[in-house]
Amino acid sequence: MSHVSYDVIVIGLGGMGSAAAFHLADRGQRVLGLEKFTPAHDKGSSHGGSRIIRQSYFEDPAYVPLLLRSYELWDELRSMSGKEVHRITGGLFLGRESSVTFSGSLLASRQWSLPHEILDAAQVREAFPTFDPDPDEMALFEAAAGFARPELTVQAHLDLAENRGATLQFGETVLGWEEAGDGVTVTTDKGTYAAGQVVICPGAWAPQLLEQFAVPIVVERQVLHWFGASAGTAAYENNPIFIHEAADGMQDYGFPAIDGPDGGVKVAFFRKGIECTPDTIDRTVHPHEIEAMQSRVRQTVPGLDGPSVHSATCMYSNTPDEHFVIARHPDATNVTVACGFSGHGFKFVPVVGEILADLATTGTTAHPITLFDPRRLVTV
Ligand SMILES: Cc1cc2nc3c(=O)[nH]c(=O)nc-3n(C[C@H](O)[C@H](O)[C@H](O)COP(=O)(O)OP(=O)(O)OC[C@H]3O[C@@H](n4cnc5c(N)ncnc54)[C@H](O)[C@@H]3O)c2cc1C
């Protein structure tokens, strides 16, 4: 047993855990962070160069107050770290008027008075000539949308946490944790540590690390594609991020490929995953997957279905209702849990760090998180 005593141990230093470690250390807590891989690695859910950030939240307007706080914290993180952790490009949310993407974005914008513009297909084509929506499609344009850069964000939070005195250990796998007296003991492949509180941010490893926690999480393999522009096509780099919902309800989304081919685009399907586990995920991207993506891109942003330059896999951790799990553990007083981010968590990373620091230090938070209560999902 290590003789150093900590206030809080953070298990998993990916998107959420790195933010929690920073916010806890910033409040003067003695923090130990434990991560099985390297800083800002590509084996979990927080890699691949870019993540959409937006406020007109079609998933549920209840997320908007958290997004408004997250945006403040994105700006703070950027100025504290000196890193371009996010960039505002504007965002186009395209689909038929009845699509979730368009109508849900409009609902959230109206409910929270978020600045937005509505464009018909011809107006989209005129303002953003790279796009070619169908005549019956509409778009909501949100000027505040853009993207975050996951690797830079994780590294910024880790650096700032260390600057504030956190001890961060990489290449160390947590094997288990248990309540002990008025605290918690954590055992790894290298040692045993004690702390008053533990914050568990396991990403796709939730089914393993939270075995006795009856929240059903399904892990899914997702694929990211980087395509170059076809000859003669204007570069995509100064375009907005987009989410497009086709008539079949399937959503695809894209960004300027900042870390890929010049003028190219990074695109993916939103929810077209294959169930997997972190141990069994197929990391090879197959030609038929590349072709399916190119043919979809051709419909929305013709000319950006150019050569496939790179592709990568990543994991979603889906809850049955696709809302997050953020709470004190229902059966373990000194344990806080953040998991099940269901493919849309990254834009919330800074505010989740703040919420986890609130929960670990005070047991409660002023942020609205009832939507994320695990008891809604627990099967008895
Ligand atoms: C392809 C793709 C596209 C996405 N696009 C968007 C988007 O555009 N916008 C958006 O908001 N969100 C998006 N998301 C979702 C978002 O990226 C995730 O919700 C978020 O990154 C989850 O963070 P996390 O901290 O839960 O997981 P992770 O970042 O994976 O962190 C979990 C960490 O725990 C560590 N760990 C696990 N087990 C152990 C152990 N036993 N011991 C020690 N360490 C351990 C892991 O190594 C890992 O580092 C996307 C996700 C993917 C995969």
TrEMBL record:
Any single GO molecular-function term of the entry would be: sarcosine oxidase activity
Record bears the keyword Flavoprotein: yes
In which organism is this protein found?
A: Rhodococcoides corynebacterioides
Q: Per its UniProt entry, which superkingdom is the organism in?
A: Bacteria
Family annotation (Gene3D superfamilies): D-Amino Acid Oxidase, subunit A, domain 2, FAD/NAD(P)-binding domain
Domain FAD dependent oxidoreductase: where? 7-359
Cofactors needed by this protein, per the record, are: FAD
Give the Enzyme Commission number: 1.5.3.1
Q: Where are the transmembrane segments?
A: none
What keywords is this UniProt entry annotated with?
Answer: FAD, Flavoprotein, Oxidoreductase
Q: Which InterPro entries match?
A: 3-OH-isobutyrate_DH-rel_CS (IPR002204), FAD-dep_OxRdtase (IPR006076), FAD/NAD-bd_sf (IPR036188), MTOX (IPR045170)
- The molecule here is called Sarcosine oxidase
